[in-house]
Design goal:
This protein is an alpha/beta fold. It is built from 11 helices and 12 strands. It has an 8-stranded mixed sheet, with helices on both faces. It has a 4-stranded antiparallel sheet with strand order 2-1-4-5. The protein is globular, with a radius of gyration of 21 Å. It starts with 17 loop residues before the first strand and ends with a helix. About 35% of the residues are buried.
Length: about 350
């Protein structure tokens, strides 16, 4: 449980127009035992009490190592996974209690770009059918108007509109991701979850896709939740960054503040691994190597989730309650006993 809803007080936060509020969000996947009669014997705490705001027109980065719950957070926000508990409020409407037609209509305003451009496109459908499917489902366009709009979307994401009758296997990875972006834009959403949209692409193609996302954001006023591993790219594209570890957000701040002054030991270790393009700085820089393995989300350690690997842990870190996400300076939130109790 956090003590307050994370917000920022800087003037760059688009007049504090909150498009998305996530409050105490949890997503636990049950672990069952038995063949004929199955009973729950535990739960994987993929997302465990997460709270944050996303402001209209911004890009919020969500970073952390594999298995920390980033993608599950994004999918639970969109109700692709129904939350175990907590609240997701989008444009003033609470999503977690919505069902049926009401939720279907809300999906027009929020979309997702999937991580794998090879698995997220139906190989039996043409590009035109893939991009037009959301429009047909919501009955927004038909006939020649539908075809013209699909061609316009392909052109907008940098693809030849004459490719409309081709199949996904005829495209490269970068082109497939552009098709996924066109599909996400079809319903003119205001909020897009970009779930590691560049991680499966070549480095030379990554910059093209990121530049496309930035151009579309400025043209259409989009808001992104940008899930990624590449911390250098996150610094380039994101206005704020939230750091996740084992299902919890451990630090949240404006991008420059987080990269210049990381407070949580886990954030410090992540950023110490990012190469600096200056040989003199790189030579003086000290890497923080974490010891041990990531604990299982089915059995997190008592107290702070990071205590098994933290280089500066002390007695308070090993006992409940968990550290709360506290605003230690304007716009900079951190969940760490070492920071909040000792000021270090």
């Amino acid at each position: 449980m956090v003590n307050a809803q994370p917000q920022t007080t800087t003037t760059t936060q688009h007049n504090q127009d909150v498009i998305l509020r996530v409050t105490n969000l949890k997503k636990h996947f049950p672990i069952t035992s038995g063949v004929i009669v199955q009973r729950q014997v535990g739960a994987v705490r993929a997302v465990d009490d997460v709270s944050f705001n996303v402001y209209r027109g911004e890009t919020l980065g969500l970073v952390g190592e594999s298995g920390c719950g980033k993608s599950t957070t994004g999918r639970t926000i969109l109700q692709l996974y129904r939350p175990t508990s907590g609240f997701v409020e989008f444009e003033g409407k609470e999503l977690s209690s919505m069902k049926g037609e009401e939720l279907r209509q809300m999906r027009r305003r929020m979309q997702i770009i999937f991580q794998d451009p090879y698995a997220s496109l139906n190989p039996r459908m043409t590009v035109g059918n893939i991009v037009s499917e959301p429009l047909r489902i919501h009955k927004l366009r038909q006939g020649s108007e539908l075809r013209e709009y699909v061609e316009h979307l392909l052109e907008r994401v940098g693809l030849n509109p004459f490719y409309i009758n081709r199949y996904p296997h005829e495209f490269s990875g970068g082109q497939r991701q552009r098709i996924g972006i066109a599909r996400a834009l079809a319903l003119e959403p205001s909020f897009i979850v970009a779930d590691e949209p560049i991680s499966a692409l070549d480095v030379s193609i990554q910059a093209q896709v990121v530049n496309l996302l930035e151009d579309l954001q400025s043209e259409l006023g989009l808001t992104y939740l940008f899930i990624a591993h590449d911390l250098s790219m996150v610094r380039h594209i994101c206005d704020r960054v939230a750091v996740m570890y084992l299902g919890k957000i451990v630090e949240l701040a404006n991008t420059d503040e987080l990269y210049d002054n990381p407070l949580h030991p886990y954030t410090q270790s992540l950023l110490s691994a990012v190469p600096v393009p200056d040989p003199e700085i790189e030579e003086r820089r000290q890497r923080i190597i974490l010891k041990g393995d990531l604990p299982s989300p089915a059995s997190p350690p008592p107290g702070c989730n990071f205590n098994t690997r933290c280089p500066v842990s002390f007695e308070l870190c090993y006992h409940p309650p968990d550290p709360e996400l506290v605003e230690v300076k304007p716009g900079h939130w951190v969940a760490c006993h070492r920071v909040t109790e000792t000021g270090l």
